[in-house]
Amino acid sequence: MVTLPGFCLSAAIGILPLLWLTDIPEPATIALLLAAALCLAVFKFRLLRYSAIAVLCCCWGLLAAKESQLSFESWIQNPVTARVVITRTDGAQNHELQIIQSGKQYFFPPPGIVLRGTNLPEPVCSGQKWQMTLRLRPVHGQINEGGFDSQRYALAQNLPLRGRVVKAQRLSEQCSLRGRWLNAVTNATRSLTWQGTILALGFGERTVMTAEVKDILRRTGTAHLMAISGLHISLAAGVGWLFARFIQLFLPAHRIHFRMPLLASLFTAGVCTWLAGSNPPATRTFLGLVIWLSLRLSGRQWSNWEVWICCIAGILLYEPLTVLSDSFWLSVLAVAGIIFWYQWMPLPRRVAHWRWFYRHLAGLVYLQAGITLLLLPLQVFIFHGLSVNALLANLLAVPFVSFIVTPVLLTGLMLTGIPWLGKNLWRLVDVLLEQLFVFLRLLPGGWQELDERFQAVSFIGWGAIGICRLFLWRTSAASTGVLMIILIVFSFRTPEEKDEQSWEITMLDVGHGLAVAIVRHGKVLLYDTGNAWPGGDAAQQVIIPWLRWRNLTPEAVIISHEHLDHRGGLPSLQRAWPGMTVRSPLRWANHLPCFQGQKWQWQGLDFTAWWPPEAHRAPGNNGSCVVMVSDGRFRLLLTGDVEAPAEFAMLRKQWGAFEADIVQVPHHGSRTSSTAPLLRAISGKAALASVSRYNAWRLPSAKVIERYKKQGYTWYDTAHAGQITIRIKRDKWQIKGFRDQIMPRWYHQWFGVTRDNR
């Protein structure tokens, strides 16, 4: 016989492989797995039946992943005319929508599309239906160690497509009820300081929050409070339960039933989920509440762990790609941590005899401390850091937001149409939020970046609880202490201790731009720093997170030339590490020179500048600083954006000097560079190009790629490989791309056609 908890555990195990599979099998393979599962289900052995359930659920997850990829192949070749519904919009240029019909075909679930920088011809709000002709392309993110995984996030959110509008016609002018409600609250709070936070709390619209507010929330570990999340859905359910219990005080005894408060809690949770636009975290929480309620009404006593695994399985069966969501795993581990914390480390019994205030304060501190400790591994893995004042911030912010701000805000939502009352309620919410953020700004400390070494160490909290609970500190104190010391020492070994002879070169995936990191002895020399744009740059988005995750210190930067896509991240890097030296051919203040014939050493590596001559004054690509890097055996040629005239000038008197094992492809693979004489002179084995998939110049050129291959080079580019890393050890070296070798996952693939730079 199969039990419900056993079924749910098997189902969850079956869907988990979606986290680490490198490829999604073809339908024929999935059909074979399905047949094998049905054969296993015939046997009466319980283990075989559970295995059959796991395989069946695995097939379900594989089919869901396969379905998410179908649109990539069928919709990106030509413009698609479809009927869409607006699910989320800022009313200006950024929109999210779902395709509900294309031709005679209807879609369920409807695939999501993100439009950025798109002005629609008529006023837009959520809930409207439009007829659009769209040019679609699959999501494609920059992939680097320590960086944000945008492809995984997009698939988890069911937003696998990006679009550009060719033609659009509004079919329905009226917004949805939620959209009209959102517009009314937006207008009512337009003059308030904390309007963005109010909309985030009331409707889950976090896009209107300012960068300063987001930074404060990140530094204090309170970001989870300022959007409709699992906490708010659960709180709404609790409010519904209390309201129903209050009503029951006035009912005759025969009208009172225990199901009424439970159903009322489910109703209020559903309303709150709807207000949030049914975003994935809110929907998952609501589904978990439905499962909990069903178990509660079944008439059987279920343990906390049984309810926990049933909720996980129900959510994953409803939407298998939820397994890719970081917020889902944070919620799962948070609940598991609470159960584990109170079962293995309960509060001392004497606390129950304290006064009411101190007893509840101790319980709140104890709960927050447990969650902070047990969530540390996931915090390090996902966010690469932690807030050192999160415990103190949440001790005040959680009850303040939950029991003071949220009830007033919900009242404001219901009464916003009453002019005088609604206006003053929103002012009260604004004042309350002002007081909260005054407190958060005054907190000492802040966000602490953690590197990859802390991944193993972060599990010490779980281990310490086990040691205390099992009394190993009494029976095996010496062995336990030695194991802890070995773990810490092994995790914090320096690069010199690991291998003094090795070094590496990493071409970071920065989109259109260039950033190459040469790493030795835990120090870094950067060749170019990527692009910059209004509000950000490649250093903030990619380079600095990568350096900190790898625990590397940049000591020097070479700027090849003055174009923004090569120097855009320099100011951010200089703010983070003011002591860096900068070398360039630009003759700028505080820049060391980089001109033909100059030689220098860094961390035992030899650097030789081959271009430009010191007399060269012309700006632009042909003024790029070309540098040869060598350890005596392995040679790397860095070329910046040099074009054919500079290539021929370099070769004129120095033909034999350019031999190298690896060359950085000049000018992102443009036809104006990479002449055949240069490639023959280099006689290299591999070529690395830094390019963006959807760039306006359609780089790299197919002719240039073919030219390299004819000369015997192996071609790599960041659009296909993501981050490219070369590890050199004495006379051996190896190239690894992030998508194929460093972190090969099906959701990291190049989706869509093989070559697509529209």
UniProtKB/TrEMBL annotation:
| Localisation per UniProt entry | Cell membrane
Extract the InterPro entries matched here. Answer: ComA-like_MBL, ComEC_N, Competence_ComEC/Rec2, Competence_DNA_uptake, DUF4131, Metallo-B-lactamas, RibonucZ/Hydroxyglut_hydro
Give the transmembrane region(s): 24-43, 223-244, 256-276, 305-321, 327-344, 364-386, 392-416, 459-492
Q: Does the keyword Glycoprotein apply?
A: no
Task: Name the Pfam families for this protein.
Answer: Competence (PF03772), DUF4131 (PF13567), Lactamase_B (PF00753)
Annotated ranges, domain Metallo-beta-lactamase? 512-693
Q: Which membrane topology describes this protein?
A: Multi-pass membrane protein
Is this entry keyworded Cell membrane? yes
Give the UniProt keywords, A-Z.
Answer: Cell membrane, Membrane, Transmembrane, Transmembrane helix
- The identity of this protein, by name, is ComEC family protein
Task: Tell me what organism the protein belongs to.
Answer: Cedecea colo
